[in-house]
Design brief:
heterodimer; A: about 375 residues; mainly alpha; four-stranded antiparallel β-sheet; globular; B: about 210 residues
Chain lengths: ~375, ~210
């Protein structure tokens, strides 16, 4: 998903769930910041690089694709953008294929529930991180957050479904490979990553082979996923984004109550119903960026102005804060939330017998070992200061 | 562009209650039907087998073209490396000056024509197979030509095998060429069978839709 959903739609969902305007802004900012918090940004503000929640294109180009590099990539993308749906799903094949298959993202998985519960009684930043992860499970379903040709590849069998009367017509999509040229939905011109035969090529990470199509709320398309055994998948983004919105409202309500626990599969249709038509109109409008529409909708909901997202808004605060007080700043709390999320997901993947995300140390059992960056998280959890 | 209603093939009422489903995504947009997909343990349906065959056709079509390129390279390399032998056989060894030049040019033109014909046939077969595999309608001609070429390559291969029995020494290049000729004929045979399957499946589907 893009800023239109992660920032503005999350704001709308938070407000509908009962959060105040200021709280909704912080939640939405954190949700969008997950797409900005790269190692480069963390290095710039002298923050722990292990808290990276994304990787920029330039970082990916320089990324190692040996086992260590692949594990690092998998940790980031599986934890925040392609949350695995079922780490125990039965699948035939060799162990390496099985492990990659089990990282396929999808909504309503056990990890989604764990992600939202991790944010219970937590900071607004933790809630924002959880909302980003939850929303992406809907948009990025069918792709895995690890470079893999045999999981993430697509081929010429790729059709866009265009509304026509009561039904749809199919238009075949031939992807081009020009990152500088914007997509043109009117002419059906879309960019995707180049086919690379190498199994672990960065081109085969996530939904690169399907371009930005999963992130466009208006797109409906059919394609053959590499893992699907020639079964086609029908992606109805307007419908699934609506589900994501309903689920965000349900989750945000649970988190606000402080007592209710989020259950996977929960959807809050009732709260969203009065606004459904308007939301559907935004989702189905054929535009690459729906920020303006979502912003207008959000401002109508709350009666307040939603400030534009500024990636540098809280950086000065973090840099200026003394070392002992950094974790109390906005970005400090975000970093703790990111570390916690990455730690939880990596641990779950590791415990399922899958080493694609690397080793995970259980601090409760083994004591403080491993990456120094996580000491900060462990200390705060032990002191109860992450709340 | 084909007209279609959003597929109902994967409709499932309650995803969380369906055993065997790998995973599932629900769309309750009133304009769309519920969507989802089945687990991988389920057997392939007819349409999935057809897609597999179509994909095989695309890959094999590329393979036929690749073998054609190899064939061109091999022929040219053989002519270059055996130039003296060929000159002796054709009587060019005794020629000089313009006469010899003309003979060489004629020889290369003949080689180019033969190689060009071979490559053209392979391009026709390969591109047609790829086109058919990608969903475009193609006639029977390329299948027939592929069949004839397959028989031709099998005969060549058998002749090569017979030649080995009679020769005192086996050269590595001969073994390699034999293996590649065998592969080439296998690819052509596979192409014929796959193309027939695809055409039959499409015909049945068309009759079923009608």
């Amino acid at each position: 998903m893009q800023m239109d959903f992660h920032y503005y739609a999350t704001y709308c969902a938070a407000f509908l769930a009962g959060w105040s305007h200021e709280e909704s802004l912080q939640i939405a900012y954190s949700a969008q910041f997950v797409d900005c918090c790269s190692e480069s940004l963390l290095t710039k503000i002298r923050a722990p690089r292990a808290a990276a929640t994304t990787q920029l294109q330039l970082e990916l180009m320089d990324a190692r694709t040996d086992i260590i590099g692949l594990q690092n990539i998998t940790r980031i993308w599986s934890s925040f953008h392609f949350l695995p749906r079922d780490l125990e799903v039965p699948v035939k094949g060799r162990r390496m294929y099985r492990n990659k298959y089990r990282l396929i993202c999808g909504p309503n998985g056990a990890l989604t529930e764990d992600t939202v519960r991790l944010a219970e009684n937590g900071s607004l930043q933790a809630i924002g991180v959880a909302m980003h992860v939850l929303a992406d499970t809907w948009a990025h379903a069918g792709f895995a957050g690890t470079p893999s040709l045999v999981i993430n590849n697509t081929n010429y069998w790729f059709y866009e479904l265009l509304p026509e009367g009561e039904g749809f017509t199919e238009r075949q999509i031939s992807f081009r490979h020009s990152t500088s040229t914007p997509d043109d939905p009117e002419k059906g011109l879309y960019s995707a990553s180049i086919y690379q035969m190498n199994e672990n090529s960065i081109m085969n990470l996530g939904h690169g082979r399907a371009g930005h199509l999963p992130d466009y709320s208006f797109m409906r398309y059919r394609y053959l996923p590499a893992w699907g055994g020639y079964r086609d998948i029908l992606k109805d983004n307007p419908g699934e984004y609506m589900q994501a919105f309903r689920q965000m409202v349900a989750a945000l309500k649970c988190l606000r109550s402080g007592t209710e626990h989020f259950q996977r599969g929960s959807l809050d249709r009732e709260t969203v119903l009065p606004w459904e038509e308007e939301i559907r109109t935004i989702l189905e409008k054929r535009q690459l960026d729906a920020c303006a529409d979502w912003k207008a909708f959000g401002e109508r909901l709350s009666g307040e102005e939603i400030e534009a997202f500024d990636v540098e808004k809280y950086q000065a605060e973090y840099v200026a804060a003394p070392e002992t007080e950094k974790s109390g700043t906005f970005l400090g709390r975000f970093i703790l939330a990111a570390l916690a999320q990455k730690s939880m997901v990596t641990n779950k993947i590791f415990r399922s017998g899958n080493l694609l995300a690397g080793f995970s140390v259980d601090y409760g059992e083994k004591g403080l070992k491993g990456m120094r960056d996580y000491f900060r998280l462990a200390e705060y959890i032990l002191r109860g200061e992450d709340r | 562009m084909a007209s279609c209603v959003l597929s109902q093939e994967h409709s499932v009422k309650n995803p969380l209650a369906c055993p065997g489903l790998l995973f599932y995504t629900v769309s309750h947009n009133e304009n769309c039907n519920t969507t989802g997909w089945r687990g991988i343990s389920d057997a392939m349906t007819g349409i999935e087998k057809q897609r597999k065959d179509e994909n095989t056709l695309v890959v094999i079509g590329g393979g036929v073209i690749a073998f054609g390129v190899w064939s061109v390279v091999r022929t040219v390399m053989e002519v270059i490396l055996r130039m003296e032998e060929l000159q002796g056989m054709s009587g060019m060894a005794g020629m000089t000056g313009l006469e010899r030049l003309a003979a060489e040019i004629i020889m290369w033109v003949v080689v180019a024509i033969l190689v060009g014909v071979d490559m053209s046939i392979r391009l026709f077969i390969g591109l047609s197979a790829r086109s058919e595999g990608m969903g475009r309608k193609k006639g029977q001609a390329y299948v027939a030509v592929a069949g004839i070429l397959a028989v031709f390559y099998v005969v060549i291969w058998l002749a090569e095998m017979a030649g080995f029995h009679g020769s005192e020494q086996l050269y590595l290049s001969q073994i390699a060429a034999m293996l590649l000729d065998f592969s080439s004929s296998a690819v052509l045979v596979e192409l014929v069978f796959t193309a027939v399957r695809v055409k039959r499946a499409r015909k049945l589907r068309k009759e079923g839709d009608a």
